Structure formats: C-alpha cells, structure tokens
Sequence to fold (414 residues):
Amino acid sequence: MQHRKIVVVLKGYPRLSETFIAQELLGLERAGFDLILVALRRPTDARRHPVHDEIKAPVHYLPEYLHQEPLRVVRSLFACLLRPGFWRALGSLAADIPRDFTRNRARRFGQALVLAAEWPQDAGWLHAHFAHTPASVTRYASQLRGLPWSCSAHAKDIWTSADWDLAGKLASARWTVTCTKTGFDRLKELANGNSSVHLSYHGLDLDRFGSFSEARKQHDGSVPGEPVVVLSVGRAVAKKGYDTLLEALALLPGDLAWRFEHIGGGEELERLKALAQKLGLDSRVSWNGALAQTEVLEHYRGADIFALACRITANGDRDGLPNVLVEAASQRLACVSTDISGVPELLSPEETGLLVPTENPIALAQALERLIRDPMLRALLGDAAERRVRSNFDHVASIGQLKQLFQQEWRAAE
Fold:
C-alpha cells in the first residue's frame, strides 16, 4: 500500500516546548510516511532539541503577517481564484467572520491561500497540530485544494477555542486525535458522539530516555548538608502554577533541608525570581533556564522529587498531560502535581504519585513535606510511576495508532 505525502501544519517550528510533536513527526517518518512541514511562524527558541535534527522533512514557512509579504499573498489569491474550492472556502470564511470578527481570522485565510497556491508536489493529505489556528488554516486549505485533513488536538487549543469553532472543525476533519481523556470527552461531546475522535497518548521514546536503575539517596531532610532536591521543568507561564509552588515551598518547616531547581525559560521568570526573593527562598532556589535534553535528563536522575502545580487560567488555558511529568516518571522520580486535566491519568493518588487540589499551596506544602521526609514513599511512587509509563506511555503505541488511522484512509481511497 502506497503512503500519501502528508502536509503537516504547525503553529511554529521548531519549538523546544513542543518536543512531543517533534517526536511524533520522527516516529511517523520512521514508520515510512513522507512528511512536509508547514509552519505559521518562524522559530523563536534559541535552542533546538536533538530530535529536530533527526527529522528529515523539509520545512516551509507561511507569511506570519500578511502585510509582511503582500505580493506573495496577492499572487496566491489570484492563483486560487479559479480553483473549484475557492468559493467553498470563502463561504466558510464568511460564516466564521461574524462569530470571530478579528484580523486573525482573515490572516488564517490568507495563510491558507498561500499554502494552497504553493502546494507541494504530490502531497495528498493535510494534518494540523493544534485545533486552534493551525486547524483553521488547514481547514481552509483543504477546501481550497479539495483534499482531506485530520487534526491532533492537545490542551490550550481545546479549552480556549469556542464551541462553534471546534464543532465545525470536528465535522470537517476526517478524524481528530487528542492526548488526554478529559480533552477526548470534550471533543466527543462537541462532535455529537461522532466516532472520528480518538484518544492517543503522546508517549515517550523510551529508548532515548533509557532506564534509570541506580538507587537514589535515602536522605529525609533532617541533615542540613544533605538537602532533598525538588525539581520542576517547564516554561514560566501562568498555567504552570510556579507562584503556587514557591508559596508552598515557603510554607515548609524551617529546619527541613531541601533545595528547589527550575529548568525552563518563559515570560514570568523575572517575576518568579522576585517572588522567591520576597518569600526568602533565594538561597534554596536555582534557576537554570532552558537546557538541552541530555542536561534535563541528568537533572531528572539527580533529583529526589518532581513538582508541577498546574492550574486553569482565567481564559481557560491549561496543560493536558505535561510531557515533563511523563519524562520524570520514566526516571523513577516521585511526582507531585495537581488534579486537573490529564494529570490523574498518569498520577493515581498514593499509587503512582501524589495529587493535590490546584491553587492550594498549603496542600502542596503538606505533600512536599511528606515526600521529603519519607524516602521509602518516594521510591515506591517512583517505581510504580515508571511501570505505568512503560505500559501506557510508550510512543511506539501512539505512532502505531496514528499509522493505522492514516492507512485506513489510504485503503479506503484505493
């Protein structure tokens, strides 16, 4: 059976915070799929993940803002005017505009025109990563070219998109996959029970992460010179809840020996550093910035506890199942997080981790203190979490599911 060439539409590429997408792209390439990557904007990250260098697919960039490349946009408009799908796509735009009267809506249509006009030779399928802006461009482009499309929905795109917008995309796409049960339930409801919505956990490349078999130290925070290391990896943005985590650390007993290490960039980093200073945590906190994967892996293996205080922000934004939790668990690291979104799908309370209510620094401090004082509990939770990752979150299974979905389409078209 011959694979079709797939155009994958991404918001930005490459992005250090979206290595789970890059891992999926690499997995599809290794499974024999021919990919072309199309990004709505150019990279802003200074660092690259090693997996990005392994992906062979060419990358094309659409104009991020239409006024920056007006001739390219006008040429694309004239190239698409005579296409049979132009008026269908324009009709979709006309239906969308009254409900989303923004420049962004017009921009997505303009980007779709460029994609349709500069269409890669022999490409026969579109796949969008994220159900918000990339899916808008993909949907219009699919109508312009008369080609089918599919979508991978994740977290923010599910919870910050309007119901009408998601429902329209679900009806238009051949199928949609998402990475948490909570996201799946929301999409399934909007799709009116349509069977084209599928649950597919991202999964890790466990060969890349390897197994960590060394015994961790049994320190319990009682010796000042042997602090228990609490690690967190993530961008300093509101939905990660780092202010709550710092407040929780400040509530720990003064005689308890611990140290907090953070890895990641983000626009709130300076504010968090100021908060740590205000809370008197300066001497116990290390801000490492963004690090390469090999360095992050060493931090997982050198830490004793992994903490992430996920929250739902005012506009509904939230994590699905943070990949860093799965990574930490794969290294037998005891994890504590909050009971939102897909986190409980990995961390079962008292079994594979500890869960606390979101926005509750007192409960988080109590969970952290418990883990700091009890190395045996840390070992039990870490071992159980690693077993769950290896049984439920191996990327081989998720790639296999995507491969099957694509191949079903190919067979139906033969």
Summary: The longest helix spans residues 395-413. The radius of gyration is 23 Å.
